[in-house]
Amino acid sequence: MTAPAAPPPGDAPPRTAARVVRRVWTSYVFRRILQSVFVIWLVATITFMLMQLMPGDPIEIMAGRLNSSGMSHDQAMATAANIVAYDPNASAWSQYLEFLKGLVTLDLGNSLTSPSTSVFEHVMEYLPWTLFAVGAGIVLAAVIGLSVGMATAYRRGSVLDHTMTSVGSFLTGVPNYILIAAVVVLGYTVLGILPFLDMRGRVTAGIEPGLDPVFFGDAMFHAILPITAFAFTSTGAFMLNMKAATTEVLTEDYVTVARARGLKPGRISRNYVGRNALLPVVPQIALQLGMLVGGSIVIEQILNYPGVGQMLMQAIGNRDYPVVQAAVIILATSVVITSLIVDLLLVKIDPRIKSENQEA
């Protein structure tokens, strides 16, 4: 009997390549990266459209300022068009394509109030301070909220449970700018123990930025109130979510089996309860970050903290549209990237997502 003919040697690689492409296309990580890129593009496009609808032409605004300094109208218009980095006579589609090109190359023109500075450099001067305060607030909230939430779940029905649940609900329900305003009024105006005037700004005048304890300590001193404000709401959210997740995990069979095996309570709490209770709470980090970055505008205005939120309000007041556009896009991109990192972290720690990714 004649053996079946072997397939041509060139057929195997395409099938293998197709499987690789299909596996990559259906993988959770790849889909999340594509979603993140799409969200950033969508935010950038909506921001571009809104800037087109804003009253007043940025070039006219800039040319008017240059005119007032003695420059002729034609020269002022040409200089303004070069600073703003778009052609006012071009179609909206051409302007959009130029905008996307500038977005990819990080060249979105110059600030109208500071023509020698690109908007990207201008925003990046303020953004690290906001991310520092928001990031420190998230870390502080996570440490306090997760610890207290887990402790209250172990003591359901106790005074600690009722008290901390009420505190968590209060912190979650009341806006953080109201809470921090109350702290400032009580500590500075009423009691006189809070040096609020000395805590404003980024650092004390005369202290140069650098990798030294003096600068770091002074920056922390000035960021205490913003960090506290950002931690308020997140602490309550983490506390309540961790309590609910821990309460559910404590009823699982594997916890009962671990106790029956005589494992130490600390090991059960750490390896069985805590690790599994964290899974539904970790995505809350990205959600809280988005809320805090959005709320940074109000917090930084109240506390006179020169972050990107305060800069954005100043740019809106000055009708510095290129800076407003860049600030919104960079803030949104920061939130999207953080959300992506959190989701990729879940792939490592959540067996359900890991198995789904392997099956794909």
From TrEMBL:
It comes from the Bacteria. It is found in: Cell membrane. One of its GO terms (biological process) is transmembrane transport. GO terms for cellular component: plasma membrane. The chain crosses the membrane at residues 33-54, 126-153, 174-197, 219-240, 277-303, 323-347. CDD domains: TM_PBP2. Belongs to the binding-protein-dependent transport system permease family. InterPro entries: BPD_transp_1_N, MetI-like, MetI-like_sf. SUPFAM superfamilies: MetI-like (SSF161098). Residues 127-342 form the ABC transmembrane type-1 domain. PANTHER family: DIPEPTIDE TRANSPORT SYSTEM PERMEASE PROTEIN DPPB-RELATED. This is Peptide ABC transporter permease. Keywords: Cell membrane, Membrane, Transmembrane, Transmembrane helix, Transport. It comes from Glycomyces algeriensis. It is a multi-pass membrane protein.
